[in-house]
């Protein structure tokens, strides 16, 4: 769906992206790169229906070779924040004709703020809110190579809240502290209590966050 947006706000976010601590190798740096503003030029120009019709008239009279392409800007931002945020880290890279696993540690926090990656008109964020906070509750880790390995998980046991989403739906401001609970490391049938620092030092492959209230 193509929408006409105000050029002044089309690329605006809920919070200033330039205030982020963009330490290389952090989840914030990954999100910043994924949502960065891109220029579409040369062979990546955008097909412009408005420009084409303005120049050639109604679309039915236009041959495909006469379409007009124009320079454009592209940016992917979040327009509807989820109750549960899942981040999937790309743990492989092309090495010639082969794929190689990336074992580099990516730093991730217990509480993450999505506001710098949300459009200023984000649908389910109360007007005036400049923070969209999430608390970490699960991590999946992979050990081994691209051909073989083993998956383990970290999960936080916390108090059940049957009305977890109610304040968010009412537009109330979120709190800044992570949900309290005990972390556990799970490997097949073996389960062991671990510290939060142990979790944050893991080689995360999947990260699971829940919206804070």
TrEMBL record:
Question: Is the keyword Hydrolase in the record?
Answer: yes
Which residue ranges does the record assign to the USP domain? 1-212
Question: GO cellular-component terms in the record?
Answer: cytosol; nucleus
GO aspect biological process, one term: protein deubiquitination
Keywords recorded for this protein, A-Z:
Hydrolase
For whether the record's keyword set contains Hydrolase, the answer is yes
Q: State the source organism's domain of life.
A: Eukaryota
A molecular function (GO) held by this record is: cysteine-type deubiquitinase activity
What protein is this chain from? Answer: UBP16 hydrolase
Q: Which organism is it from?
A: Rostratula benghalensis
Lineage from the top down?
A: Eukaryota, Metazoa, Chordata, Craniata, Vertebrata
